[in-house]
Amino acid sequence: MKTYILCCLFFWIGIISAYGQVDTLLDVGSYKLHIKILKGKGAPILFESGGALDARQWDSISNILYNKLNATIITYDRQGFGKSELDTSKYTILDEVKGLEIAIKKLGYANKNILLACHSLGTFYSSLYAFRHPHLVKGIIMLDPRLPSLADMRFARSVFTKIKRSDFRREDIGLYYVLARMEKNSDFIRGKNIPPNIPVLGIMAEQGPFDDKEENDRFQSDLKNLIGKRINANLVRAPGSSHNIPLDKPDLVISEISNFYKKYLNQSK
Hints:
By secondary structure, this protein is of the alpha/beta class. Helix content is 44%, strand content 20%.
């Protein structure tokens, strides 16, 4: 029986190694981050999930992109979500991105050219990562992005005043801390502009994320304004899509990421 178990163990280790898959918890200081990697020969694509979502958001497209591009695919659960731990004493967006940087370094990708793909609130994190690594980030694809502004700060403040910590179950407490920090994080990211050398693709959903039409109009106008002000930026629309474009329009997302990757990162390793 012992021999059989060992044989099975080595068989599955071989399968994981052969396909270059990593699924691990990495110590990044005062907490652990859950990271999944599909190891390809091409430059990595780092995905940032939307608010209240974890790495599973990208499951429907990550394997397809891996096979299509032979790119390294990196997805992870942000602090307090999925399988990642939460340290409430170090819960600022800067601390979160520093934790991600530690993980990326441990995995051997700290000095690699990289493409960032982000959804909604994940854009805050991708923007800060690009600000801190302007020469390594070769492009950002934003899926219905949340963008920092004074209006966004006011909206975040109004949302937080309506909730209480006791409203959240233990397994959902990460969302409480996201909402608690939202106004300050938006203010912080307002001063961290994406470097002008980085190409940007914005993909806009037909339906906004909010119940209020005025807020949805503002949300979409922010993206249009961002794209309009940049030299190397384009806007693509996702007709019929809700705010969660990766879920509603995976084929569109796969196509746009593939084309963008081939244009800007195909020669990067």
